[in-house]
Design brief:
about 90 residues; mainly alpha; globular
Length: about 90
């Protein structure tokens, strides 16, 4: 398991939700991270990244505001929010 990749996603998500990173910067970073998740096969990182990506898709499709996006992403910052069943 590539714990560092999951942690990196978590850390970058926290920066965005906390207002320390713009949406555009976070989205650009996430695109690269999604490629790395696919390459590593890390199930935990993939689960977190996919949840984030789904919420972003709702925002970029106009289904919610950026404030609502951040509110929807905030629960993913809980340490046990993304648990993969094996």
């Amino acid at each position: 398991m590539n714990t560092s990749l999951r942690q990196e996603i978590f850390d970058q998500l926290a920066l965005y939700v906390g207002g320390e990173r713009s949406f555009d910067a976070f989205q650009d970073w996430l695109i690269d991270a999604l490629w790395r998740v696919d390459e590593t096969g890390d199930v935990d990182a993939a689960s977190l990244a996919n949840r984030v990506e789904n919420r972003i898709a709702e925002y970029t499709s106009g289904y919610c505001s950026e404030a609502e996006l951040k509110q929807a992403l905030r629960p993913l910052l809980a340490p046990d929010a993304v648990v993969t069943r094996r």
